[in-house]
Amino acid sequence: MNRTILILGLLLAAVWYSPAQAQDANKATATVTPNPLEVRGDSVRLKAKIIIPAHRKLKDGGTLTIIPRLGDYKYDKFTATYGPLTNVRKNGINADVSITLPFITDMIGKDIDFTYVYDAGGDRIAGEVDDVAQCCSTVGLWFINNAQYQFATVDTVRTRDTQPLKLLAQFNFPVDISKLSKDAYQRDVKAIGDFLKKNPESTITIRGFASPEGTMKRNVQLSQERSKQAADWLQAKLKEMGYSGSLGKATFKTETTAEDWRGFKETLMASDYPDATKQKVIDAINAGKPAAETEKNVMALLGGKSKRVEELLQPLRRSIVVVETNKAMRPALNDKQLDSVAVAYISGNMEKYQLREILDKEEWLEAAQRTKAPSGKMSLLLAYYDVYREDYRAINDLAILKLVREPDAPASDGIAIVGGDDAIVGVGGDFDSKFKNDIKKEPQDVNAYKYKYKIKYDNPQETVVDFKYKGAFTESINLLELAYQLNRNDWAVLSNLGAAYMVVENYPKAIQYLTQSLAQKNSPQAHYNLGLAYAQTGQFAESIRHFDQAGNLQGVYYNRGLAKLLGGDSAGAKADLLRHTQLLPDHAMGYYALAIAGARSGDINTISENLPKAIQRKKVLSDIAQEDLEFRNFHSVDAFKKAADDDKSK
C-alpha cells in the first residue's frame, strides 16, 4: 500500500468474562453498549446506564457524576442525566451517560469500571461498579491511512510557442579580479557569434556578479567592472573572430548583482554540508542584517574561510551572458527534451541560472513532475521555488514530496507482536533491519515520532519499546498553509492540506479543508481523504458516503468495507472486502476482516473460508484469532477451531 499505516489491536485473555450487569456493594448496577467496547477512529465511545436503587440517603435535586476507569487510566468525570426527577429516595436513580475516551493501546485487555458520586446539598452517596465491559474490539483501528496527495496542475498543452530563442554563456573571474584572459572561452564566443549571424537583431544582456565576501563598496565595484569588462571583452573577441558584421544591429545591456546571496544559497544547497548547517546559514542570510554582519554570521556558521567555503564562493565570481531575440521563437520543449534538461541539472552538468533561461515556468514545473527519482524531483522543485517563490504550485509539490518521502514508515500488512499475560497488540509494519536497530532503544525525543507502537522481538529478553513515530509533518503542513494563503481556491492544495491534517490526527481541520476542496472540484481524491477522516472519527455513514464517490482509488474497497462493518452493514462489508481481496490477494488483513464480517453476521462459513487464507499470509493471525473478542461467540465451535489452526491453514 502507498504510504499506509495499519494498527491492529486485539485482546488476549485466558478467561472471557462478559457480565450483562455489574454491581457495587450498594447494589448499584451498570450496563454498557457496545459490549465489548469498540475503538472507533481515535477514541472509545460508549453509552453507560447506571441504576442506583432506592436508598435512605438519596435526596431529590442532586447531581450524579461518573468517573470511568480503564486499567490504570482514570478519566475526567462525566455528568449523567437521570430520572425520575423526584422522590429518588423511594424510586432510586436510573442514569444515562454518553462517554468518549481517547484510545490508548494499553487499554486493550482491561475492564472498564465506574466510580459514581451522587451529591444533593452536601449529602453524598458514592460507590464503584467494577468489570462492566472489556476493551476492546479494534476494527476501528484497521483503516489504511493511505491519504491521497495531488501534485499541482501544469500546463502540458504546449501552446507556449512564443518563447524567445536564447543562448547562454558564463564567464568566471578569479577572486577580487574583474579582467578576463585574452584566450578564455573561445567556444562560447564562437557560439554567440554564430547566433548573431542568424539573428542579428538580438539583445545581449551581460549580468555581472560578485560573491558575498569583502565590503559592499568593493563588491558593487567588482560587479560593475565585471559587467563592463565582459561586454568590452566579448565585443572585442567577436570582432577578432570575424563577427564584426553581426554586431551592428545587436543591443548590449549590463546588469549587476553586488552580493550574490541567491547564488550562494544555490551552491550551499548543492554542497555536502549537513542539512542543519544549511538551514542555519539560510536563516542567517534571510535575517535582513547589514551586509558585513550577514557575512560574518555566515562564515562563523561555516567554520570560517576555508577551501570548502572557497568552493562555494568561486562559482559566484562571474558574468552571465544571455543572448536572445524576439524575431525567432522556439517551440515548447517536448518530453524527451524536458527529461534531458532535468537529467543535466540533477547530474550537475547544468547550473540553475541555465534552467532559469532555458525553461519557462510551465516547462520547469513539468520537468520536475516528470522526474521519477524523489531526490531529483526535490532538487528541481527547490530550484524552481527559489526563482518563483510566489508560485503556490511549487510550494504544494514540495510539501507533498516531503510527505510521501517520510522515511521508514511501516507497511500496512505487517504485524509485530507485543507479549504480556493480558493483552496482545498487533502493529502494522514490515520493519527492515535499519528500522529495527533504530527502535530498539527509547528515542530521546518522543515528539519526533507519530505512531505509537509496542514491539516485542523474537528474543523474549529484548525490551518492549513504546514510542511514537511522527515524521516531518509540521514542515509540510506549514508549506501547504503558505500555498493556501497564496491561492485559497485550489482544490489540490485544499485536499492535500486536509489529508496532512488527517495524518496528524487533527480531524476537525482535515474535514474543514477537504470540504472546501470539494466545493472547488468534485475530485475522487478529496472524497477518499474525507472518507478516511470521517472513519477515523467514527462517523461511518458520512465515511461511506464519501468513499462511494472516490472511484477505484487503491484502498477504497477495504476502507469502505471496514466502515460498513462498523456501521452495522455486514453484508455490504462482505461485498467490499471480497472485492478488495480480489484486487489485492496477498493482503492478509482483507481476509481477516472478511472473517470478522462473518462473525458479526453469525456466518461460520465466511469465517471458515477466509480465516485460513488470512493465516496462510500471516501466520501470527492464528494466535490472534483464537483470542480475538470479535470471535468470542465461536471460540468453542469446532469449525472455528479448525479455521484458526495454523497447522490446518498451510
Automatic annotation (TrEMBL):
Keywords: Membrane, Repeat, Signal, TPR repeat. TPR repeats lie at residues 524-557. PROSITE patterns: OMPA_2 (PS51123), TPR (PS50005). It comes from Nibribacter ruber. It comes from the Bacteria. One of its GO terms (cellular component) is cell outer membrane. Pfam families: OmpA, TPR_2. GO terms for biological process: receptor-mediated virion attachment to host cell. Residues 160-290 form the OmpA-like domain. The keyword Transferase does not apply. This is Tetratricopeptide repeat protein. Residues 1-22 form the signal peptide.
